[in-house]
Amino acid sequence: MELTDRLQPLAHREGPQACAAPARCEQLWTLISVALIATAALAAYANSFRGAFVYDDIPYLISTERFHRPEALWRQLPFMPAVFERSLALNYLLGGLDPWGYHAANLAIHVAAALVLMSIVRRTLLSDRLRGQFGRDAAPLALAIALVWTVHPLQTESVTYVIQRREALMGLFFLLTLYAVIRAAASRQRLAWYAAAILFCWIGMGIKNVMVAAPVIALAYDRTFLAGSWPGALRQRGLLYALMEATWLTGLRGGIARIQESGLGVHEMDMSTWDYARSQFGVVAHYLRLCVWPSSLCLDYNWPVARTWNEVLLPAVLVVALLALTAWAFWRRPAWGFLGVWFFVILAPTSSLITIKFLAFEHRTYLSLAAVAALVVVAGYMLGKYTLARLVASARARAAIGWGLAAVLVAGSCAALGYTTARRNNDYRSAVAIWEDTVRKRPDNPRAHGNLGVALLKAGEADRAIEQFDLTMKLEWVTPEVFFHRGTAYQEKGDLDKAVRDYTRAIQMKPAYAKAYANRGAVWQTRGRNDLALSDLGKAVELAPDLADAWYNRGNAWFASGDMERAVQDYSRAVELAPGMAEAWNNRGAAHLEAGRYAQALSDCTRAIELAPDFGPAYRNRAVGFLATKAFDKAWNDVKMCERLGYAVDPVLLKELSASSPPPPRQP
User: For a pLDDT cut of 70, what percent of the chain falls above it?
Assistant: First the structure.
């Protein structure tokens, strides 16, 4: 977007826009607008930077190795723009898994989209169809709409929930596509803008399939505000829209690779296309309510299928009536009708006959919300303008009062919306907090209880996690993943019999469940059953050769069996897959110690200490290595570190070290 786009002449306007130097006023207004949107966004989302990774962030960012090795993206997605995936890889390259950088990038994308939206609205209000009615106030109206859209709480799921960057990034390229089409219509560099529109559309298709609506919206916009008719739009830019539609192939190809399972697995609903379609009447009605009154926002609705006509009839009447009104308005009052077209067409890929896994998610309204914001702001502007015209005779007084009221209303609305957004961001402060919020709002949602259990387990609250997994099963959400996570909780508690029971049940339900084999193998190894451990862990690495934990656990089993060579091989594979796994480095060092390879042992234990400076076993093993190589002072230093960390040192080590070299005097 060009921040220096020329506004309409300002010198002859009334109110605060009047200025003797139009060019300077244009630049000043642009700078003020950009600053206001950026400031409002930062104020509303500042507390989101403290938010944690939640829900699909975990499998996408933490458990997906390709984002930790950006070069792998080029091998996996060589012919796709993959802007979303590569943006995550860049975040990892710059800041690892620190959530702050991911949240900052999400907010930057959202602000950029808001600025493009503001420019689109301003140019629309300055179009031939609307200039006479709105041209004098196009810039402030565009700013007001963009501000409301930016700070609206309904956007939090697309901005604060890290992995929904996909929605916001797609939204940015959707808006850029339309902006390029608008610029092309009045530019001498039409081919350049046409090329930009196709490029933006292609990139957007590689981000999310909702982008299929972009060519349709661009054509509808052309018919309404540029060419003025369908034949005119197709005659002037038909080839452009055909090429934009051809980018749909990118969306279809990219969509297959983007299917993800949540941490609890896929619990398929008995849902036909007709079930999905009729349920969407209630979903769309709910989206509309949230646009106007954004209360009780929820991460995971687990929206039920509408089974009876009583559940369908009322929302269907509302939605069908709005669709009919949109069709009539688009025919008779195209500018107003376009808002309805924008809202419904952008929702169509997720709220129509196209059956997808889940019925409702708030991030799907990211772009559709712009139509509601525009409708409310413009309708309020017109109501105030014509009301003042009847009550106040003086044009100058009307302008002053109007601007004052508008400023108060917009500022108040944005402050209220921004405050609500900040409060909603607080729910994302941790995985436990967001799932506790979801369970409060949807107590009958088994997936929410299960994900709360996973979050509690990671927070070290195994007992509370088991309670949530039990609730999940009582609500008839019985998947191998639920058994796996409950088994992990029992394993954390030390209840190994129940852990084996749940891991076995998970494997029975999902015979190729590598993680369940790996964890059950670890339990067998803890119980001294190395034969069973090696069997399960061998199956795990066979099913999932990139599962670092499985290689690590099998290395432990080989170590316990006395086969140090095989232990070293498996530990080596583990650190190759997970270079930050300090335990694997330390255990490989211990295996080298047992084999008498002291130089390798010292190197591995030192690496473990670099990764985890408070890891007592690594100091203990390195002390053994220093003792064997007669580096007694270094050995005593590591023994002291063990004591400082509260890690018990083997008495045999102390005896041998004391016999070889007396301990150094304690420092006062």
Answer: 88
